[in-house]
Amino acid sequence: MPELPEVETVCRGLARALEGRRLSRVQQRRPDLRLPFPPRFAERLTGRQIVAIRRRAKYMLWDLDDGTVLLGHLGMSGRMQVGVGPLPELGPHDHVVFETGDGPHVIYNDHRRFGLMTLDHRDTVAGHALLAGIGPEPLGNEFNADVLSAALAGRRTPIKAALLDQKVVAGLGNIYVSEALFRAGISPEREAATVAGKRAERLVPAIRDVLNEAIAAGGSTLRDYVQADGELGYFQHAFKVYDREGDACPTCAKGIVTRIVQSNRSTYFCPRCQK
Predict the structure, then answer these.
(1) CA-based nearest residue to 110, from 35, 40, 188, 165
(2) What's the CA gap between 39 and 44, in Å, rounded?
(3) pLDDT tens digits for 77-124?
(4) Known catalytic residues?
(5) Distances from the Cα of 31 to the Cαs of 5, 28, 96, in angstroms?
(6) Distances 18 to 3, 10, 228, 246 between C-alpha atoms, Å
């Protein structure tokens, strides 16, 4: 499933193509994705100008000129494909089409239909059920070692599980948590509460660095992920431990990258240098 860097990359690509443009036609080609589309979905979007496209956690938010906000999630296989010129022949998994007259068009393709799209208003979207209670953005100024330490206080779950809790910090997923914990030298099995303090001071910049590097690289290509412009991301070539079971640790060279299962998800780490 796309994580924060992938969603950020898609939002930036869509912003370049669509911000300032008016939606001349919107096609909703099925009644639902993971959730039903809201009533009059296409009608409410048609004719509206896109003011801004931004990200909150793993969600896309399209701000429109009348205050409407399109709130979307890519799910496991959703793709926002930007094109120019005439629309191509649409396939069975092309579920929503956004046209801008003589400008670019965007086709939302999702063969598993685990994504979603709904509508809200700029004055209320922050409290939408999908967004309410989400923690601070890891790349924002409000996220620091003190904030993370407070969120982890009293938590007896493994730190890996705690960081996947969107109430602790927004947008982190399985891949980048593994990478950040490795960079910080923290075992994914360590009790979360014990990470507060000096370990949190190492972990926060590690989280920021791995996310920023992944965004700069265009996101990670894992199975279905594609950038908005159709180019594949390539940060997976820079993974230190994720999906590298059996390799020598790139830091200590003596440890072996190990895979364990936590909460039904694969975790990769070096038992020698992550404590």
Answers:
(1) 35
(2) 9
(3) 899 999 998 999 999 999 999 999 888 999 999 999 999 999 999 999
(4) 2-3, 58, 265
(5) 29, 7, 10
(6) 22, 12, 11, 44
